[in-house]
Predict the 3D structure of the following.
Amino acid sequence: MLFGQEVSRRMSRPGALNIFNKSYTEFHENLTTLIDAMIMDPDHGKPGPVIIIGVNKKIPAEGHHMWYPRTRAQRDEEYKDSPKWLEWCDDRYTGLYKIVDRFSHPPGRTYYVGWEPKFICFYPAIPLPWTMGEGIGPLEQFRRALFSDTEKTTGNLEVKTYPIRTHRIDTTKFEPSLYSLIVRVHPKPLPKQFATNSFILDEYTRNDETGTFLISGKRGMAKTSTAIRLKKAVEQRYPGVSATLVTNFNPGQTGVDIFKLCLANINSTTPHIIIINDVDVHMEVAASDPVLKGRAGDRRFTHTCDRATFQDMLDIFASTKYLIVILTSEKSLEWMWSKQEYKSFVRTGRIHGEIQMTESDASCMLNRYSHD
């Protein structure tokens, strides 16, 4: 296994442990923040090199780290009457190697590989086989702890939420660009969020991997957070995919060409999710008379400069493969269809479905949309 050989080569420096194992597990970069926290947990983690990021705050640096299924107190109790070297030879841990890929695009992709040692060899070699209760090894116990829904509190980092990497559009420079930002959501979605994202992905698949959907409901109904969770749902539904989530696209922002900025980079392994909040406000601007709005003769580009440009944007969204567009609004699609000036924006083909969020955490209304 080429990747395993590379990791073994990195750790074969003089004085390093000799690890006799050929099975490696790579953890997706989205999990790096959670794994950092688990390694810094004083009860279970044993960090190697660290980076100081603040007063009494550290994170694991690139290199070798350990995670033990048993707590520090359990290990101390087990070895209180034993020689110190016996504890050093205990191989009931998950080995984790943090890698910073300087050749990725963009550079700096950070992720972990993990393995489960069969035994560790010092000089002289003293192999100690491990047994973990029901035959569950340290790597599987680490995986279960990583994806546990229980909240974790660590010595240096507090993890009560799940990290999701998002992208935002930076308009402070001459040329708009994307930058990455980690947001955190509760590890367990609400039932209505799970149902919403399952419906969206089912319709996305049915529509040949494209779709534009409206999530409607009053403020505070978890519309935007549900859309953010969609990234994780996509990556779980389609293994090997890393979705790009753009959370702050404003069609009325001057100079932001979403086609050039995002759609040009879409492919089967990097589908995009674009969120447009309060879409009814943008529809109102696009449908208005430029003269009345003081925009007559304004040559600066926006997607809401006129009705035709906004409709063109919706048409391109609806026909671009590997793209999901989430529109949010306090207004329903039926309300928009009842307004003559909005009808052309919400006809069949431009919108594929609507999810109406209710005050109940357990339910929502899912509708496949059709209007000519």
